[in-house]
């Protein structure tokens, strides 16, 4: 069923549809968390940040040439043609979402939730109008949509940027909104092997710029799930000397 603005809003509850090319003006805005304003203003909040970082070569450089590989690993996990309802938690720079959109089945839908209107607007500028896609302002750790309402949830390089309590909320929400048997695909940093040539550099980068990222080196991502919540299956793969991981959870 084509996703109109009003049905998208109904799907996500109180969150506002802010940036789909066919969407209404913002309303009921969700407050911007302090960690984004204080720690990541330079990467996501400031308008100059969007102009600076929205370059595929730069995103690829930040991931040491692994952007395409990680993006395609996430997309392939969701399928060549993606049926049902898909949620992507948080916008990303680069072409992940445009490529995800191309895989959405004619009767499927894609909801992208991000807390920053500027990021949603940037994503809208990279996407052609598409009734199956809704760009929604909302907090990944407190989604205002019903339980068991998505067939798949994608979380791409979001968790390392969230303080532990927000990360816990995001993962709990991903499990809550996924249907039983639904898939949650997570791609993010991971503790590299001891001799990794970039280990020292990444430690410095995390210390200076990404204060919550080391958590993903020191813990399995499942450790941030509420104790009572367990995926029925977990598949984990790492690549590039263990610096990156892809997790697939089946709810
Ligand atoms: C997915 S992460 C970073 C991904 C990657 N480094 C890239 O290339 O963009 C960045 C996005 O997460 C969003 N974000 C951070 N915390 C959020 C939250 N609690 N709820 C929804 N979106 C959030 C930010 O607004 C930003 O657009």
Q: Can you walk me through this structure?
A:
This protein is an alpha/beta fold. The chain has one domain (5-250): 3-Layer(aba) Sandwich (Rossmann fold). The chain is built from eleven helices and eight strands. An eight-stranded mixed β-sheet has the order 1-4-3-2-5-6-8-7, with helices on both faces. The protein is globular and about 45 Å long. The structure holds S-adenosylmethionine (SAM). Residues 33, 36, 44, 59, 90-94, 113-116, 119, 139-141, 157-158, 161-162, 166 line the site of S-adenosylmethionine.
Write the layout of secondary structure elements.
Layout lengths: L4 H8 L3 E2 L16 H6 L1 H5 L1 H7 L2 H7 L4 H12 L6 E5 L6 H8 L5 E6 L2 H9 L7 E5 L12 E7 L7 H14 E12 L9 H11 L4 H5 L14 E7 L4 E7 L1
Parallel strand pairs: 2-3, 2-5, 3-4, 5-6
Antiparallel strand pairs: 1-4, 6-8, 7-8
CATH fold label: Rossmann fold
- Assign the CATH architecture: 3-Layer(aba) Sandwich
Global outline: globular
Largest sheet: 8 strands, mixed
- The largest sheet has its strands arranged as 1-4-3-2-5-6-8-7
Helix share, percent: 25-40%
Bound small molecules, which ones?
S-adenosylmethionine
Rounded to the nearest angstrom, the distance between the terminal CA atoms is 24 Å
- Class, according to the CATH hierarchy? Alpha Beta
The average pLDDT value, as a whole number, equals 91
Which class best fits the helix and strand makeup? alpha/beta
Counting structural domains, the number is 1
Give me the strand/helix succession.
Answer: HEHHHHHEHEHEEHEHHEE
Gyration radius (Cα, Å) is 17 Å
Helix count from the secondary structure assignment:
11
CATH superfamily: Vaccinia Virus protein VP39
Beta content comes to 15-25%
Number of strands: 8
Instruction: Identify low-pLDDT runs.
Output: 1-27
């Amino acid at each position: 069923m084509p996703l109109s603005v009003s049905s998208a809003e109904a799907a996500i509850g109180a969150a506002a549809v802010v940036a789909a090319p066919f969407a209404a003006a913002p309303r009921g805005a969700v407050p911007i968390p302090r960690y984004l304003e204080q720690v990541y203003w330079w990467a996501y909040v400031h308008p100059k940040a969007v102009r600076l970082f929205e370059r595929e070569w730069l995103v690829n450089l930040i991931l040491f040439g692994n952007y395409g590989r990680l993006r395609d690993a996430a997309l392939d996990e969701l399928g060549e043609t993606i049926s049902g309802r898909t949620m992507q938690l948080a916008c990303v720079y680069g072409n992940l979402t445009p490529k995800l959109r191309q895989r959405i089945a004619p009767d499927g839908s894609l909801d992208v939730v991000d807390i920053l209107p500027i990021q949603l607007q940037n994503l809208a500028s990279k996407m052609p109008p598409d009734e199956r896609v809704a760009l929604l302002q909302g907090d990944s750790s407190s989604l205002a949509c019903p339980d068991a309402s998505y067939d798949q949830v994608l979380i791409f390089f979001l968790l390392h940027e969230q303080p532990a309590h927000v990360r816990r909320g995001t993962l709990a929400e991903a499990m809550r909104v996924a249907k039983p048997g639904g898939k949650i695909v997570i791609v993010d940093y991971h503790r590299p092997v001891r001799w990794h040539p970039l280990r020292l550099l990444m430690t410095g980068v995390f210390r200076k710029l990404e204060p919550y990222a080391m958590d993903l080196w020191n813990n399995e991502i499942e450790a941030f799930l509420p104790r009572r919540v367990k995926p029925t299956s977990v598949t984990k793969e790492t690549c590039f000397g263990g610096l990156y991981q892809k997790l697939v959870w089946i709810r």
